Amino acid sequence: MKYVSTRGSAPELGFEEALLAGLARDGGLYLPARWPSFTPDMIRDLAGLPYSEIVLRVLTPFVGKALSEGVLRRLLADAYAGFGHTATVPLKQLDSRLWLLELFHGPTLAFKDCALQVLGRLFDHVLERAAQRITIIGATSGDTGSAAIEACRDRENIDIFMLYPKGRVTEVQRRQMTTVKADNVFNIAVEGTFDDCQDLVKALFADTAFRDDMALSAVNSINWARIAVQIAYYFAAATALGSPDRRVAFAVPTGNFGNVYAGYAAARMGLPVDKFIVASNRNDILTRFLKTGSLTTAEVQPSLSPSMDIQISSNFERLLFDLYDGDGKAVAEALAEFRKTGRLAPGTARWKKALQLFDGARADDDETLAEIARIHRETGELVDPHTAVGIAAARGMIESGAMSDADTPVIALATAHPAKFPDAVERATGIRPPLPANLADLYEREEHVSVLPNDLSQVRDFVRAHARRPAGRTVGVA
After folding, report:
1. Quick one: which H or E segment has residue 422?
2. How far is the first Cα of the chain from the last one, in angstroms, to the nearest whole number?
3. How high does pLDDT run on average in the chain?
4. pLDDT, tens digit, for every residue of 116-143?
5. Virtual CA dihedral for 44, 413, 249, 407, nearest 10 degrees?
6. Taking 80 as the threshold, does the pLDDT of residue 111 lie above it?
7. Does an H or E element contain 296, and which?
8. H/E run at residue 370
9. Quick one: pLDDT band at residue 478, thresholds 50, 70, 90?
């Protein structure tokens, strides 16, 4: 399996190289040069398997010969051993057509654990075998940071620097990052928005001399390996409800487009999907694109679902690559215009092509609180604000008759444990969800964080001053 850049001018890489590179050297994101194809029988065979086995079967074609089946099986078993539910990603029924896929049973209580616990072990295996080390730079709107830090903490061959927008994540999210005491972990609170953090990370990768000197790599969803691992839970949920002999739909709380893009990848591999419902909060750039055909930026507005407070969704570039029929040069030109003007209009034909699989809906804070309250009142379940946005979008689509089949089940992705957002949940239901036992003392732990302005040179100097220099040849460079 080879990987190509969405912008067309970076060389093809193998799996290990793409894993370590993260972002392509032309600024693009890596994608498989061809999509693996799962036949209906292959999809049927996934039903009832342990979750780690489903991940193994889905991930194997993307890994190719880079890792043996035995090694990959061992890494996956270790990655999911610490999850707090025997099903790893349990599926719950909310009503006759609506289901909830719980993705928050990992160590940091967010869906990011499903992939990052694997990614950390993949990094460790590859780097140890090659006697190399990397410097991971990431941006987080809340949950990626803690999941990445948990996956990479205390690893000898990795230093990790995580940027987050100061004052724009919840206290639980912040403390899950900043209370980790490890010599290889550095938290940076940036005085700006998540989009600012993301821009800083991309600028550091674009500085090729710095990138090579520090052997930069990435763990957020710009890294293809993370998307590849996430594909598995779409197959797991769909086969549990009868796929491939029954079509399903998914409602996905969406900020950076990585989670829902993993579902799109599953569809490209052969999973029969009726619709992907892109669920946005008040920062609804993706919903507006799906309704109007124009991707137009606006000011980021803080919300009760901060992990979705994004106006520039990095992974949307991967979908654009398909909408532009794999023309990397055209994608690069369109994105350059978007950066310049704040608007991207790919044309009616490409917009309609996207609408074949995607639809969008939004919920503001009042609607989110009302949905949390309704879900608890009718089912007894407590859900976090991001999940509530997804469920509200799913209900709206069901009630509007937007599915091609009136009996199509809709699976809403539960992306975070309600205890990560206790203030919003308590405001909606009067119940303050407690943290699990392993995090019960979170508010008492000492924090470790550096506050920096939204300034590239200062962030670059901080990383250079604190990272241990990589030994041997640089990695992730082509």
Report:
1. helix 422-429
2. 16
3. 94
4. 999 999 999 999 998 889 999 999 887 7
5. 90
6. yes
7. strand 295-296
8. helix 365-379
9. very low
Cα atoms in the Cβ-side hemisphere of radius 13 Å centred on 83: 28
What pLDDT digit, counting tens, does each position of 223-238 carry?
999 999 999 999 999 9
Catalytic (active site) residue 112: yes
**What tokens appear for 21 in the block?**
């590179």
Using one digit for the tens of pLDDT, what is the confidence trace for 270-327? 999 999 999 999 999 999 999 999 999 999 999 999 989 988 899 999 999 999 999 9
Which residues, 6 or more positions from 461, have their beta carbon under 8 angstroms from its beta carbon?
none
Phi, psi of 314 (to 5 degrees): -55, -45
Q: Could you say which of 92, 112, 275, 420 is catalytic?
A: 112
CA 182 to chain centre: 24
Alpha carbon distance 207, 418 (integer Å)? 39
Q: Which stretch of 43-52, 202-211, 228-237 has the lowest confidence by average pLDDT? A: 202-211
Closest C-alpha among 291, 276, 261, 412 to residue 357: 276
Strands 248-253, 216-217: pairing is: unpaired
Alpha-carbon separation of residue 406 from 100, 242, 354, 401 (angstroms):
19, 16, 22, 7
Residue with tokens 């029929």: 325
The CATH architecture one would assign to domain 91-109+224-429 is 3-Layer(aba) Sandwich (3.40)
Cis omega before residue 244 (within 30°)? yes
Q: What is the pLDDT of residues 376-393, one digit of tens each?
A: 999 999 999 999 999 999
| C-alpha to C-alpha distance for 332 and 9, rounded to whole angstroms | 10
Interatomic CA distance for residues 306 and 293, integer angstroms: 25
Residue written as tokens 């034909």?
349
* Number of residues that this document lists for the chain: 478
> Would you say residue 330 has pLDDT above 80?
yes
List all residues 6 or more positions away from 413 whose beta carbon is below 8 Å from its beta carbon: 101, 103, 111, 250, 251, 252, 253, 259, 387, 390
